[in-house]
Specification:
alpha+beta
Length: 101
């Protein structure tokens, strides 16, 4: 998700706000092997003032291999405090989502 939109874990577009993963849950549904071609579909949602969640579905062809969900908090690495989700990040996600529709 970050790579495709041009953001990084340390910069959500405003130069100071990054993310810290606060939780992760993974449900393994099937086996995959090294070098299998996997597809990862990602959805970003459940936004609050300073956090959001990512939802991932890992597939191998039509087979669901894993489902994962992570919580991310937005963090200002300069002040070392939680920060609001940057507007530029939200705007880009909306544009990216609408372009794929």
């Amino acid at each position: 998700m970050f790579h495709v939109t041009g953001f990084t874990e340390l910069d959500l577009g405003d130069g100071v706000t990054g993310v810290i993963m606060s939780d992760l849950a993974v449900n393994y549904k099937a086996e995959a092997q090294m070098f299998d071609e996997l597809t990862i579909d990602t959805h970003v949602g459940e936004f609050s003032r300073n956090s959001f969640r990512t939802f991932h579905r890992v597939t191998k062809g039509d087979l669901v291999v894993a489902l994962a969900e992570s919580g991310l908090v937005t963090f200002n690495y300069t002040t070392r405090k939680l920060a609001p989700v940057p507007e530029v990040f939200l705007k880009t996600l909306i544009e990216f989502t609408n372009a794929g529709s």
